[in-house]
Specification:
The chain is of the alpha+beta class. Helices cover 32% and strands 48% of the residues. Strands 1, 2, 3, 4 and 5 form a five-stranded mixed beta sheet that branches.
């Protein structure tokens, strides 16, 4: 009986520790996402219309990318609906081509319609090699338009990357 109680107690302790660790990571990413939103809006005032008028958006505040012929990138983000956080997202990117370097950047993906947002949340969403991102700079958003209900903006944080490659991004969503 004592052994069973000990095992149950230990199991509950491990579950609790891992649950709090995940929540701490999510809180850190959410805090970073709020800072990224502020930075993006300051970099290009025109982004405000996308934040206000989209069905939802996902902010990846810290994406790391590295490449030498084969490249990979990864980042965690926050999914927003009506300006409120609704879940967490995970992004993985893999590509191959003429590329070298390393870079850190922020990425925000806006969904024009509820259908586009739901496609992302269902896990059926990925960017192919043809997907283009708008580089955040003063006035860059003025000419930017949705493509199939989606538009992506990227702002470099640090590093340098030379890149002519083919690949894609895959996303995973989990609701709170």
């Amino acid at each position: 009986m004592k052994i069973r109680n000990f095992i149950v107690t230990m199991a509950l302790m491990f579950v609790t520790v891992f649950a709090f660790a995940q929540n701490n990571d999510d809180r850190r990413v959410m805090k970073d996402a709020e800072k990224a939103i502020s930075t993006l809006k300051k970099s290009d005032i025109g982004l405000e219309k996308f934040f206000n008028n989209s069905s939802g958006y996902v902010v990846f505040p810290n994406v790391g990318e590295g490449a030498l012929v084969v490249g990979a990138a990864s980042g965690n983000g926050v999914v927003y609906e009506n300006g409120m956080p609704k879940g967490m997202a995970d992004m993985k990117k893999l590509d191959i081509g003429l590329q070298a370097g390393g870079e850190a950047y922020m990425q925000v993906i806006f969904f024009e319609t509820e259908d586009a947002l739901n496609e992302f949340k269902q896990g059926n969403f990925e960017f192919s090699a043809e997907a283009k991102a708008v580089i955040v700079d003063k006035g860059a958003s003025k000419k930017a338009n949705y493509n199939d209900g989606v538009i992506t903006f990227v702002k470099s944080k640090a590093g340098a990357m030379a890149d002519i490659s083919v690949g894609g991004q895959k996303f995973k969503y989990s609701e709170f």
